[in-house]
Specification:
The protein has 15 helices and 2 strands. With 326 residues, it is an all-alpha fold. It binds 2-acetamido-2-deoxy-beta-D-glucopyranose (5 copies).
Length: 326
């Protein structure tokens, strides 16, 4: 309890006595104000130097937060290494050979353990890192509610069930709804494909064998198709080659993604699929026109995502090392 301020203890006790635990697994914007006053600066400085070293890392960190929250909730489970007794998420298919950013989280954690030992959870570090990665890529800033605690388990099988770019929109939407999000959030959070890169295997069927047709996806812009076929020739050894998700402003978090989708230049099948539904397609059009609307809605959706299945109060633990349960 030493890492929780008196006010939080009071609110926690109040919740315990008067309200249901469901209402009360709460997060607070100023959760670490007194216990770790340099938190924001430590995260920010690390994200700035990580991006300076590798601009692609910003998108990787946002994806890491997404893959944490959609599996077991935002509890840092994705950060756990496999052990003899714990089969982690890092080797699940959607993560293996593609999930990145662990070194950045480790460095932030080690700086924080020096500044305020056993205080800040790995789940909160990941949430703040994702926010700063977006903001430092010229995207929106939003306040991050804090106080998540770290889980002591992970689930490889749940990680294998993460939304996939090969699934139809209805299936992806169903997975979002099962996490308490909605169809709008699919359109909004897909906007994360405005920066970063994807490996060829995630969109190759669109180039050579769309839906088993032996032909390319007729909805893909033809000059983009030609470029992509050069980056990802039709042979297995090109599977891990990289193509930018947004070839126009690759390292910038902006609304260009939605302009790309509207001009049949979304990279993934799931990007293009947003046009096949009236609700998501209207959102794509609106975000392509109004970047501020996209920024506002993205901040709302990502904060909502950051509340999925959190541990708070006395649940879970504060890991000392993000890769291992204490
Ligand atoms: C304390 O938290 C508030 C948000 O509730 C924030 O605006 C303020 O900057 C924080 N102060 C410090 C010293 O971190
Ligand atoms: C810089 O980025 C590369 C590529 O992601 C990574 O392998 C390396 O560890 C990073 N170096 C530092 C000092 O962060
Ligand atoms: C989509 O969901 C349906 C119903 O759950 C399932 O039968 C189908 O296999 C899924 N499609 C894909 C491509 O995952
Ligand atoms: C979607 O929009 C089209 C064209 O505006 C309309 O014909 C169709 O009925 C709409 N579908 C649904 C399910 O609302
Ligand atoms: C898109 O913007 C128009 C014009 O402001 C609005 O009427 C419509 O409801 C918006 N569509 C969605 C899905 O938000």
């Amino acid at each position: 309890m030493e890492c929780v301020s008196n006010k939080h203890v009071f609110i926690f006790m109040f919740c315990l006595v008067f309200l249901t635990p469901l209402v009360c697994s709460q997060l607070y914007y100023n959760f670490y104000n007194r216990t770790c006053p340099n938190l924001n600066k430590i995260v920010k400085d690390n994200i700035l130097s990580a991006i300076a070293n590798d601009s692609r890392i910003a998108a990787s960190l946002l994806r890491l937060h997404f893959h944490d929250c959609f599996v077991n909730g935002c509890d840092g489970s994705v950060l756990l290494d496999d052990t003899d007794t714990l089969k982690g998420e890092k080797n699940a298919l959607p993560n293996k050979n593609s999930i990145r950013g662990f070194d950045v989280i480790d460095k932030i954690k080690s700086d924080l353990e020096n500044a305020c030992p056993s205080t800040v959870s790995c789940a909160d570090i990941l949430t703040l890192a994702a926010r700063d990665a977006v903001y430092q890529s010229k995207g929106p800033f939003w306040a991050v509610p804090l106080g998540r605690r770290d889980g002591t388990t992970a689930s490889e099988s749940d990680a294998n069930n993460l939304p996939s770019p090969f699934e139809p929109l209805e299936n992806i939407t169903a997975k979002f709804i099962s996490k308490g999000l909605e169809k709008k959030d699919v359109a909004v959070l897909s906007g994360a494909h405005t920066f970063g890169f994807a490996q060829c295997f995630t969109f190759k069927p669109r180039l050579f064998d769309f839906g088993g047709s032996g032909k390319s996806d007729p909805s893909l812009d033809s000059s983009l198709l030609q470029n992509l076929q050069k980056v990802c020739p039709n042979q297995a050894d090109s599977d891990s080659n990289l193509a930018p998700l947004d070839p126009v402003t690759t390292n910038t978090f902006d609304n260009t993604y939605y302009k790309n989708v509207l001009s049949n230049s979304g990279l993934l099948q799931s990007d293009q699929a947003l046009l096949g539904d009236n609700t998501t397609s209207a959102l794509v059009t609106n975000y392509s026109k109004w970047p501020i609307l996209f920024f506002r809605d993205f901040a709302v959706s990502v904060e909502k995502m950051g509340r999925i299945g959190i541990l708070a109060g006395q649940q879970g633990q504060i890991r000392k090392n993000c890769r291992a349960v204490n």
